[in-house]
Amino acid sequence: MIYQSEQQARQGVKSHTHAHRGKFLERVIDMANTKYRNAGLADIRKIPTPVQIKHSKGREVIGRKEKAEWVDYAGVCNGRAVVFDAKETRGKNFPLKNLHDHQYELLKSWYQKGAISFLLVYFKELDKYYRLPFKPLCAAWEEAKNGGAKSIPIATFEAEACEVKSMDGYTLHYLLPFL
Q1: pTM, whole model, 2 decimals?
Q2: Rounded distance, CA 103 to CA 49, Å?
Q3: Which residue has the higher pLDDT, 115 or 5?
Q4: H/E element holding 73?
Q5: Cα 69 to Cα 34, 48, 104, 107, 133, distances in angstroms
Q6: pLDDT > 50? residue 142
Q7: Which residue from 32, 55, 56, 151 puts its CA 20 to 30 A from 92's CA?
Q8: In sequence order, which residues have a C-beta less than 8 Å from that of residue 170 and are 6 or more positions away?
C-alpha cells in the first residue's frame, strides 16, 4: 500500500491518489466511447472487474474483487473486434510490469484472430496519450522475456505509436484511423 503520511500508514488509510489511480483515464475513455456509440461509429465497453459476493443484507452487499482475466475494454468498430487495455504512467517510459501476463496473452490472441488490439497509454508527466499497436508491444514483450529492457521508452511511442488527441468533440479520438 502507498500512504501519504506515517499517521495514515499506522491507521491503514490508503492514499487518495493510489485509491483513484487510472480513474481520470477511464473517465476520458468512457466519454469518448459514449460519443462513438451515440454517433453509431463503434460500440466499445468497459469490462467490469468481477466481484465475488460474500453475503448481502438488505441494501448492503459484501464482496471481494476476483482476479481479473480480461483487458479493460472490448467492442466493435466497422465490423472488426476491438480490444485494448488502458494504462497510466508517470515517467517517460512504460514499465511492462504494469501489463499482466493474462492481459498480454488476451491482446495477442485477439490480434492473431484479426482484432484491432492495442495499449492506450497516458504519460501523465508529459500529458500525452498514445495508442501502441500490438506489433511493437509484442516486440518489447519478447525482448523483456529474453533479458532485454523491461520498459518501453517514450521514444518507441513517438516512433511506433500514434499520439491520440482530443478533437472533433471527442475527449480522446483513439479510434480515428479505424473509422
Answers
A1: 0.83
A2: 13
A3: 115
A4: strand 73-77
A5: 24, 11, 11, 12, 21
A6: yes
A7: 32
A8: 32, 35, 36
* Alpha-carbon gap, residue 83 to 89, rounded angstroms: 20
Three-state DSSP class for 66?
coil
- Tell me: the pLDDT tens digits for 65-86? 777 779 999 999 999 999 999 9
> What 8-state DSSP symbol labels residue 143?
H
How far is 56 from 14, CA to CA, in rounded Å?
25
Q: 33, 26, 4, 30: which is closest to 17 by C-alpha?
A: 4
Q: How far apart are CA 104 and CA 119, in angstroms?
A: 10
Q: Is residue 47 a contact partner of residue 73, using CB atoms and an 8 Å limit?
A: yes
Largest CA distance in the chain: 54
Residues 6+ apart with CB under 8 A from 11: none
